[in-house]
């Protein structure tokens, strides 16, 4: 999304297979961009073996290891999709007495646009900014260590950007023709394990 980052009321680290989300959230916390950090996410088929106690739990532990004080982190350990990440994180914040006017969503790079579109739909009265670990694509592939998984995730994320507005889950996002063509090509090449049935 290339949002210009600035101070916000709270950040939400969205669960996934990418521990870089926790590391980048910790870095942004240390830069004093927000006082409170929520980690959200249960498990998915992609993450169950890597994060057996749940994405949010492992992300929280990693952030604490990187210097974020435990008391600055709220935990939402049940979400199974992006809509639940937003909705259940809001509930955790309400329970903590926090009503933010601005929120920074920290995600894996390919998930920024989808998380933004989802949050704008489900939380329209809050200003939403997005961030992810600033890595070049080749470096990101190396950091994850599984090229097929990354490409499957890219295809799945883009499909959700395209299809979820029709289902009422997200706001519309423009998809350039060349991006759409690359998406169709990747599907033809078999990068389909993260596709949903639209």
TrEMBL record:
Domain DUF218, first and last residues per copy: 21-122
Designated name of the protein: YdcF family protein
Pfam families: DUF218 (PF02698)
Superkingdom field: Bacteria
Coiled-coil regions, chain positions: none
Family annotation (Gene3D superfamilies): HUPs
Record-linked InterPro entries: Cell_Envelope_Assoc (IPR051599), DUF218 (IPR003848), Rossmann-like_a/b/a_fold (IPR014729)
